Amino acid sequence: MSQAYVNGPAEIYVGQGSSTGMNALFLGWGEDGVRITLNSAWENVVSDVSGTGIPFDVQYMAEEAFIHTVLTVWNESVYEIAAGRVDGNVFGAGASLTCGTLMGAQSCTIGGSPTAPIVGTQGSRSGGASRLCIKAPYQSMSAFASMPAAYNFPVAWLDTATDLELATRYKKIRCVWRAIPQWNQANYGWVLYNASVTGLPGTN
User: Fold this and answer.
1) Sequence-separated contacts (24+) of 50-57 with Cβ below 8 Å
2) Which residues of 166-188 are buried (b: 16+ CB within 10 A; e: fewer)?
3) Longest CA span, the chain
4) CA distances from 28 to 46, 57, 170 (A)
5) Radius of gyration, alpha carbons of the chain
């Protein structure tokens, strides 16, 4: 049945670092919710049969996501964890990434035993990425029960948090997270996001 859907105030949860599994902390709410942009990658297959102007075929090459919000109500200590970029770092204490850091730090050992996390979970890794989950609180209502409970990104990081609005007016932080697919070597599968709300605390 066709209907209108309402997400409700988008609740933003962030991981505490790659070694903490699916556990997350409540970050806050944005000024006007959260915007998720999914970007697919494509490669043209060129052949003399079809000439050089139009591809003979087009190959799908996975996708990534950018998650945008303007924080106006947030937990400062949780924000500092997210802004720290690398596990164990907080804002003002080594917040810059070490040059050359692999954000996902995913294992792609072909033919060996699976060493990457199970698809759709965070698992343990040594990179700078962790979980980002955007929860839809109104999904618990019977009228909206058919929509996803969340957009859960297992491998994400705060791509930029440098746009701060500081004045007599209330403070704003413009945030953009980048998320890439999580690799599961066991079945050569990928997941960019799912609807898991496992390990989420209440809002506070």
Assistant:
1) none
2) eeeeeebbbbbbbbbbbbbbeee
3) 64
4) 47, 44, 15
5) 19
Overall pTM > 0.85: no
Which secondary-structure segment (H or E) carries 73? strand 57-74
In contact, 14 and 8? CB cutoff 8 Å: no
Domain ranges of the chain: 11-191
Q: Are 86 and 97 in contact (CB under 8 A)?
A: yes
**pLDDT per residue as tens digits for the range 136-154:** 999 999 999 999 999 999 8
Cβ-based neighbour number of residue 141 at 10 Å: 12
Alpha carbon distance 106, 117 (integer Å): 8
191, amino acid identity: V
Alpha carbons 15 and 27: distance in angstroms, whole number: 10
Residues 162, 90: contact at Cβ < 8 Å? no
Question: Which pair of structure tokens corresponds to residue 26?
Answer: 């409540």
Which token pair is 57? 């075929």
